[in-house]
Input
Amino acid sequence: MENVLLSVSDFVALTNQTLEYAYPNVGIEGEVSEFKVSQGKWVYFKLKDDESVISCFMTLWQLRVPIEDGMKVVIQGSPKLTKWGGFSLTVKAIKPSGEGAIKKSFEILRAKLDAEGLFSPERKRTLPRVPKKVAVISSTEAAGYADFIKIVNDRWGGLEIEVAHVQVQGESAPDQMIRALKYINERDVLPEVIVIVRGGGSADDLAAFNDEQLVRAIAASRVPTLVGVGHEVDESLADLVADVRAATPSNAAQILVPDRQDIIRAVRSQTISLLPMMMRTVDQASNEVRMQLLHALEVVEERLEVIAQTLDSKRSVLIQLNPETVLARGYALIRGQQTVGQTIEVETTQAILEAEVRHVRNK
Amino acid sequence: MSGTNKNLQEKMDELNELIAWFNSDEFALESAIDRFKKAEALATDIEKDLASFKNDITVLKQKFDSEG
Output
């Protein structure tokens, strides 16, 4: 190259070709300073450490997490010499580095999305009690996915499950999950639920679930969402924006479908409970019949008593009316024509006498 | 699914109706035994259905690692 004479523009182009060849994609960790967004499109900041500083440039669209001055980040990008003689890194991806920076970025984005109402309880839709068609977004190679499927299969059957296999950690994970969400939401026949699951991991492993665009895509889903990411203690923005949040992938399976064993127990219990109910009804009916019989018997007894009393009373009258009773009181019964010269019969209690009528005197 | 062509939900609904009848004013001892037998058969059928159901899991062929 010693004898080659280049124009300035050619030199810049040649330098950039060399840089592209040498550093097609370089990862650098440093602290952000002088962060600014220009015209709502371009992002400029400096990346520095104790001794050096370098200018960085990226589009706002590529900025997937909140960044602010003082935050430790890792960038992926390529170095470039600009036509104005400046040297900068064209950043393709940036993410917070270290627990403090990840937490800070999480809190900033959480506050921003919360202020927009994305986590509001009024936005939450309920899931069908027993869905028939379900879409799952996960990595089919992940332990969390295996747990989810095992528990769903143990608990319930008859589901149509379509699985969108995606990366669930790493730089490309958010975009893959966003594409899967879009694909599922644009299908002719929509599932009743979209489940997004991923097992436990470090804060960095789970960082994909705090991606702003992914969170917005979940919020915009036409289909209700159920998200179970990490362990119980982990909290991601994808969890917060989901219609239903599960603590873990296993918990997502428990929320998604009922346990068939519970239903079998309930059905058995319901059927068994009918027997005592029937027995009680039979007992009640028997008791009612017995009571009615007793009542009828009482009525009959009352009637008989009345009849007996009436009979006694009549019998007393009859006794009084009996001629023998009258004779016993000293009276006599006379039969025959009561005219002079006729023979009449006189009956007393002791005897029957024949007598002749000798004189009749009118009273 | 075992038994008739009714799906699980229809069988569950029918069982619930039968059980509700036992608690209703329409309950009559004369038909209770028949209905109980029917409820028992339905419960067995539901149990068999629930135990035999399998999920149909399909991994989509669609790739999501790049646009398009």
